[in-house]
Amino acid sequence: MVLDELRNSRRYEKLHPSFAAAFRFLKRKGLAGFPDGRYEINGNRLYAIVLRSKGRGRKSAKLEAHRRYIDIQFSLGGVDEIGWKPAKECVRKQGRFSVKKDCGFFSDAPGAWVPLIPRSFVIFFPEDAHAPSCGKGNLHKIVVKVEIDLSRRK
């Protein structure tokens, strides 16, 4: 997991070949005015989801983990609190992992909380189980989905 401000994103661009394009998208002018929905950057290999929601609070935390995608979560407004726990330490699975949705859920409690303040981002790798949208009040964020294996063809 990585937590930092968008102004420092260049430090992380070498971690994955698609990170530079992901951060360019997050630095676009007028991004706060984009309607909720999916925005393709490079097809299914790299795309963004803009969403506005009410925070659920920590009591509603539900850990999730992915296998195919890395999440870059970026706050445009509100303070999100995201639960975190190493995925290998999650033992209480909730249902089966959905390959189609690239998501598996756990009922384990987060081991730590990550504050996602406006203009900051957090990167969750497959090793990171995370419980997003646990802040309070109105949240406005973007989740960039970065496919791990660029050799896949869709």
Biggest sheet details = 6 strands, antiparallel
Oligomer: single chain
> Taking all residues together, what is the mean pLDDT?
95
The percentage helix is: under 10%
Low-confidence parts: none
**What is the CATH top level name?**
Mainly Beta
Strand elements, count = 12
* Strands side by side in the biggest sheet: 1-10-5-12-3-2
Shape call: globular
What order do the helices and strands follow? EHEEEEEEEEEEE
CATH architecture: Sandwich
Task: Output the CATH topology.
Answer: Jelly Rolls
Task: Please give the domain count.
Answer: 1
CA radius of gyration is: 15 Å
CATH superfamily: YhcH/YjgK/YiaL
How far do the termini sit from each other? 27 Å
Indicate the structural class: mainly beta
Number of helices: 1
List the helices and strands and how they pair.
Layout: E1 2-5, H1 19-26, E2 37-42, E3 46-54, E4 63-65, E5 69-77, E6 80-86, E7 93-98, E8 103-106, E9 112-116, E10 120-124, E11 128-131, E12 138-147
Antiparallel strand pairs: 1-10, 2-3, 3-12, 4-8, 5-10, 5-12, 6-9, 6-11, 7-8
